[in-house]
Amino acid sequence: MQRLAPALREDDVPLDLISLIKTILAATKEISFRVSQAQLGGLMGSTLDENIQGEVQKKLDVVSNELIKDILLESGFVRAISSEEEDTSVAGDPNGKFLVSFDPLDGSSNIDINSLIGTIFSIHEAIPELAADDPKQFQQPGHKQVCAGYVLYGPSTMLVMTTGKGTHFYVLDRTHGGYLLVERNVQVPADTREFAINMSNQRFWQAPMQNYINDLVAGSDGPRGVNFNMRWIAAMVGDIHRVLTRGGIFTYPADNKNPEKPYKLRLMYEANPMSYLVEQAGGLAMTSEGPIMDIEPNDIHQRVEVIMGSKNEVEKCLSYYN
Ligand SMILES: O=P(O)(O)OC[C@H]1O[C@](O)(COP(=O)(O)O)[C@@H](O)[C@@H]1O
Ligand SMILES: [Mg+2]
Ligand SMILES: [Mg+2]
């Protein structure tokens, strides 16, 4: 099995980007170890602090954030970072070539139940003429990403990544400590019978999503004429990994549960990187108004509607909005 660097060179990834990717992955290996030992290392449970999202931070959220932030800011490759756990973007090397947005630990509500969690990252090139602390650095749409990926801390630790030449699967080999390529160019089947949504929010959804989901649930007794199955891991990394592995539609739609916050998932370090991975694997990543990766960001923590996965099923869902 091919190691990471030769696999990336085969995709003509520039050396400095390979070095940056290896830097991020070095932190994920440490996180993978800390996660596996969390009960023993006193890393379960919450801190007393809240992040800018108003969420109580888990101890592992904070530890993972520090590990990734420190290694990136010391690397010299990064002009600035943005993280779910940092209120603002953090300036790095004034000559750094790249910007990294990351969710240090996705699926935090799964930590205490020893279920699937992960780290999500998105890399853009820095805008040369802008200073490291200029928030405009991050006002770049998802289709300008040069790399996106997640590391899934599950029974095995897996890396799923794209640099624009398809989406590939890697596994962390604990014997030699590196990520090995296990599958190149994964493809999301265009059709599916599996959907993922938090059904408990149903009464707060807009009518088109209510109708779409009702027809899925009606199955062979309804207009779709076939039965659909439902899955919800409550960690985007886990739900998207299933979609990339066997197809499916994943959605976190708009809802009016809290009118000030109609969306849940964050554009820069959840929706954009997952969109790049899914679309590089032949799937589709949309809001009800258009492609996620065409959105011009205006805030590093902005939230968006997410409807992504198997192409034909996403288009079917969107047809309810017309
Ligand atoms: O609590 P819900 O509605 O099930 O939401 C689950 C969603 O929230 C998230 O956990 C949010 O991410 P964080 O855990 O990084 O805050 C997603 O991974 C997941 O898809
Ligand atoms: Mg998250
Ligand atoms: Mg998180």
Automatic annotation (TrEMBL):
GO BP annotations listed: fructose 1,6-bisphosphate metabolic process; fructose 6-phosphate metabolic process; fructose metabolic process; gluconeogenesis; sucrose biosynthetic process
Major localization listed first in the record, in broad terms: cytoplasm
Enzyme class: hydrolase
Any GO molecular function: magnesium ion binding
Enzyme Commission designation: 3.1.3.11
Catalytic activity: beta-D-fructose 1,6-bisphosphate + H2O = beta-D-fructose 6-phosphate + phosphate
Annotated cofactor note: Binds 2 magnesium ions per subunit.
Pfam families reported for this sequence: FBPase (PF00316), FBPase_C (PF18913)
All residue ranges annotated as the Fructose-1-6-bisphosphatase class 1 C-terminal domain in the record: 188-321
Location relative to the cell: Cytoplasm
Residues that, per the record, bind Mg(2+) 1: 84, 103, 105
Family: Belongs to the FBPase class 1 family.
Protein name per its UniProtKB record: Fructose-1,6-bisphosphatase class 1
Gene source species: Thalassotalea euphylliae
